[in-house]
Amino acid sequence: SYTIEYGQGYLPESVSEFTSKTEVTNVIFSLRPPSGFNPFFGVKFIKATKKIHPPFLIIQDKEPSDNLLQNIYIPVSHKKEGKEKLIWAETFCKDKAIKIKLVPAKAEEPLSKATIQNHLNFACRQFDANNIQYEIIHGTKNSYKIDQEVIEIAAKNKDGMVLITTTKHYGPEQELIGPPELKAIINKEKVPVLCINPRKDLHVLYAKY
Fold it and tell me: What is the C-alpha separation between 115 and 79, in angstroms, rounded?
């Protein structure tokens, strides 16, 4: 069943307000930037989505692939927020015919390398415990470029979406030109991107699904 709600004002802001008052598991945006895309449009959009509680999917293609839910590609970096998307993937994919494709970033610095391996081990333990299918594809880029590499892999295979975590706190530069995930969201390959805003209660929110 479903209901129709009519919001007012800028769409992402209306969605943010609605999801703060209503139990919603996912949000889907059909985002088709015009030719000669204005970067400030993207900055305004992503900043307006920061308060959206559930994960939100960005689809650029007018006719997305029928294989959209076949695989979820997940970049694994040294960033601590990365564990939140792994928790969400675990609870969302449980008892579903969706395969997880983990793509750990490459790192030379010992601490970053250990953190990436720790996140990867965590994911594998959780997925194994819940009988979730997964595959590991070793990336060749570092933690700051792994999102784009994963998008290129997903674009080549045309069989799923990419899951990323958004930036929790913006610095002055990000306030002006947008956070790193903006490039991923409006990727030229038009790969659907599922975004998760950092939250401490993700494991509680999705425990029942």
Answer: 8
